[in-house]
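In the design runs reported in the main text, the only information available to the sequence generator was the tokenized backbone. The following block is the verbatim input for one such run; it is reproduced so that readers can re-run the procedure and compare outputs position by position.
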């Protein structure tokens, strides 16, 4: 298998793009990635998306995007893995190029979520849960995460305010990201007074939806650019757990995160101590704690301690969500995994301005589908 490099990246701002169709968002992100790479096209297109049939009324999305990009005739396929669709598409692109089947691939994570009423989008998102034993009982994803968070607080003795640093850090970093949706800092007082959604999850525990697209162009490492802008994909791992939380042996442990991270660490030849920046899937603040624990950055039940001790900031031991994360950059679900890849590449290129992690050489991105049922981890290295 050939080693792979990312040679171009592009993204749109996460927002309510009322004036743009879903294919327009893809065009904007992919065009930016091609321009960044100094290329005009690629042999294959992989699109990560979850909701286009339910929210945009559009199936056959990858072929539509290929046509709109002017690469009619190229291989094009859509990959769906709930909120992990972006990373799943990236992994599929890696396999295609690494195998030698194609010599270049465009990967774009793509989602348009604001064209439907909120209750319709909530119902569409719920299709990533167990239809018979979770959705049919009326439990939303906010409710599922609230149940996990409540049990976690009970088991390990944390207070709700102990999770505030995750949201505060994300918002502080998003201030400096022009592509983020929520570019306002928040305080502990605002976090504690925020409206409750599903106890104990409040509004500032949860990430906002949005419209957006993020893209990358990948090629064999031997054909990468030589100007210091290429980033090597050093490790890729994927794992699954039960869709329903109640079917898991350990509901407070993300076993798929543990497994996929171990795979990526081994493939990259690194350990948790070597990771300079970690773009984790902070759809809810409880997921930040669970991800840090499953990936080896914190002991079981001690995830919130990293936030309370200021270790998750860009100057800390484990910088996370350096461009705002899902919490403040926004969470256009099928696109999120590719935003994470783009943001790690930016860090390794040294392009993050005030939120740049000093000397960052190795970055990790972890994308979660459902409430932990599909988890895909990628490790990238500065070339």
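Verbatim output:
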């Amino acid at each position: 298998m050939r080693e792979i490099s990312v040679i171009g990246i592009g993204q749109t701002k996460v927002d309510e793009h009322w004036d743009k169709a879903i294919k327009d968002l893809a065009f904007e992100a992919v065009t930016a990635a091609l321009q960044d790479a100094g290329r005009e096209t690629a042999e294959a297109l992989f699109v990560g998306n979850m909701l286009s049939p339910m929210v945009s009324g559009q199936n056959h999305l990858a072929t539509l995007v290929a046509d709109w990009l002017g690469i009619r005739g190229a291989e094009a396929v859509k990959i769906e893995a709930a909120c992990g669709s972006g990373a799943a598409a990236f992994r599929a692109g890696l396999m295609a190029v690494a195998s030698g089947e194609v010599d270049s691939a465009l990967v774009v994570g793509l989602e348009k979520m604001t064209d439907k009423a909120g209750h319709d989008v909530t119902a569409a998102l719920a299709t990533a849960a167990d239809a018979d034993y979770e959705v049919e009982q009326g439990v939303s994803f906010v409710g599922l995460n609230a149940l996990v968070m409540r049990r976690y607080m009970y088991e390990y003795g944390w207070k709700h305010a102990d999770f505030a640093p995750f949201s505060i850090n994300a918002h502080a970093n998003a201030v400096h990201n022009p592509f983020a949706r929520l570019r306002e800092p928040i305080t502990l007082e605002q976090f504690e007074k925020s409206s409750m959604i599903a106890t104990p999850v409040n509004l500032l525990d949860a990430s906002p939806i949005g419209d957006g697209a993020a893209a990358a162009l990948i090629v064999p490492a031997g054909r990468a650019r030589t100007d210091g802008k290429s980033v090597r994909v050093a490790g890729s791992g994927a794992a699954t757990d039960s869709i329903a939380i109640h079917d898991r042996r350990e509901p407070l442990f993300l076993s798929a995160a543990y497994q996929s991270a171990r795979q990526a660490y081994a493939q990259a030849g690194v350990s948790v101590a070597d990771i300079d920046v970690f773009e984790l899937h902070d759809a809810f603040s409880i997921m930040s704690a669970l991800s840090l624990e499953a990936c080896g950055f914190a002991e079981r039940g001690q995830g919130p301690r990293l936030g309370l001790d200021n270790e998750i900031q860009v100057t800390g031991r484990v910088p996370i969500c350096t461009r705002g994360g899902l919490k403040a950059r926004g969470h256009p679900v099928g696109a999120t995994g590719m935003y994470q890849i783009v943001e790690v590449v930016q860090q390794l290129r040294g392009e993050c301005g005030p939120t740049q992690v000093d000397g960052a050489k190795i970055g990790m991105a972890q994308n979660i589908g459902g409430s932990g049922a599909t988890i895909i981890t990628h490790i990238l290295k500065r070339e």
